[in-house]
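Retro notes - structure team

What went well: the batch runner handled both jobs without manual restarts.
What didn't: labels got mixed up in the shared folder, which is why I'm recording both outputs here explicitly, each with its sequence directly above its tokens.

Job 1
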Amino acid sequence: MEPRVVLRELFDAAVKAADPAAAVAAHLPQPPKGRTVVIGAGKAAIPMAAALEQNWRGPLEGFVVAPHGYRHELTRIGVHFASHPVPDDASLAAADRALALASTLGPDDLLIALISGGGSALMSKPVRGIDLMEKLDLVRALLKCGASIAELNCVRKQVSGVKGGRLAKAAGRARLHTLVVSDVPGDDPAIVASGPTVADPTRKRDALEILNRYRIVIPAAVKAWLEGPDDDRSLAEADREVHVVVSPHESFRAARRRAEALGLQVLYLGDRIEGESRDVAKVHAGIAMEIAQYRQPVAPPCVILSGGETSVTVRGKGRGGRNVEFVLALAISLAGERKIQALAADTDGIDGMEPTAGAFIDPHSLDRARARGLDPIAFLEGNDAHSFFEALGDQLVTGPTHTNVNDFRAILVAP
């Protein structure tokens, strides 16, 4: 089987395992005495809502927020479309709508929250006194500086009117049942989509420290808010359950099973890997070279699998993208090693802000690039790996996968 076909099969196995439909059906609560209201946000919101509609016998009302362009066939749960990864006016309207709907609930009612990656942008509302553009500028600056997802979401939560448990607070004493499709290392539901229904352990001072650490210019209104006392986000005593129903770990188990069925040894490095994409790539290259040359720590044919969420500190004028930057840096480190091919891609089908999941490399990638007059190192230094792989025709384009369990990396080492 062609190496790229193998790599794509492993990626597809991981994405298929992240389909939330069966997981949602297995984690439904008991119906309430009163109303059942659904509020959801994220790239998996529509299939999660579809599974709920198919398996819930009583009345349903509410809505979910999904990215513009997503399709659906929902009949009982409404769909509100908004922008990702940068919020728009529709994101603000979604947050207002969610808070207003939650505030109508009483102790006999049930709120089912369907939360997945991407929800932070899709349902976005700054606290009073802070302009939406000021909040967006902070997020962009953190992304450009290479902040981790936990750091990014800490700042988001501290300046948000809906994240960090504020949606749960609006629901008062209603029962709350949260189902989460995780896209974060460690599967902390307080981090996924910035935890709109989960109590937040961070405080304003934490966000201020993060912004100061990255030397980000803080707007006066934001600084005044973060230097003030913490707002009351305590949650009322109520029946509250949170279930992570889909996680990266399960996706990699599926990819591993498929690899073994194809006769490959598997070296799994875990799904919690963070750090600069190019630095992580150097480590992966070293492991792959050790296998190729010395058959340690596993013997080829084998595949190295890893996940997590790396970051890119944007210094150039390129389009970023942590997976394509990883795989370009990997190719440079491998320097044409003839036994190794690889794929790195985001399981949601979007790497950074581009409608491209990721990219492939093979032993001839650098030679093919140079034959076209492309300097791989220049593209890496300019954070423009998307343009590099677009020119080579080596992009992986899947379209929206309607799920998100973060990054998928597979490095194939031949005998």
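Job 2
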Amino acid sequence: MLEHLFGSRTRVKLLRIFFAESSKRFFVRELTRLLDVQINAVRRELQNLTNAGIIMAITDESVVEQSDDPHEGKRKYYRLNQESVLFPELRALLLKTHILGEQSIATTLAIGNEVEFLLFTGLFTNAQTPIDMLVVGSIADKRVAKAALEFEQEHGSQIRYTILKTAEFYERKHLMDRFLYQVLDAPHQVAIDKMTRV
């Protein structure tokens, strides 16, 4: 959807990566691997975003000092410019498209009434959790994997998820399972809830 607004799918994917980890620096080859896009396309979009003041290009002086190779030059890396006047608006826009992606997953998984409980956390709520999505019910693993893959291809972010049968969820909750409580106690959004005792 955003590629129609921004004119480039690669540019949108780059923005999502930079905003997902707003304080991290990225090298060109690292971004190329993350996006699975040709390096020239990544360089072109990085230049466009730098010219717009949305990201900053910074030369890493420490690489030259640490390198034994005299031919290795200074490495350039890129990071989000949080001082940009566009920063708040872009963050809000990307958050809204993330919410739409979340709703799309929920709609897809709700078909067939096999999901009893669907919770989004981690990537979706900026919480430090071991997973991004918890699915409880009798749904097939393939359906969840397909919905996650569609989101990943659209948003450029990988989803870590866990699928539990309803009985297993209640058993782990009763046993005060550390993993489960780490997920339930973190900031989260519940998209489907047919369970009365969660």
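One thing worth noting from job 2: Residues 1-5, 63-72 have pLDDT under 50 and may be disordered.
We'll revisit the folder naming next retro.
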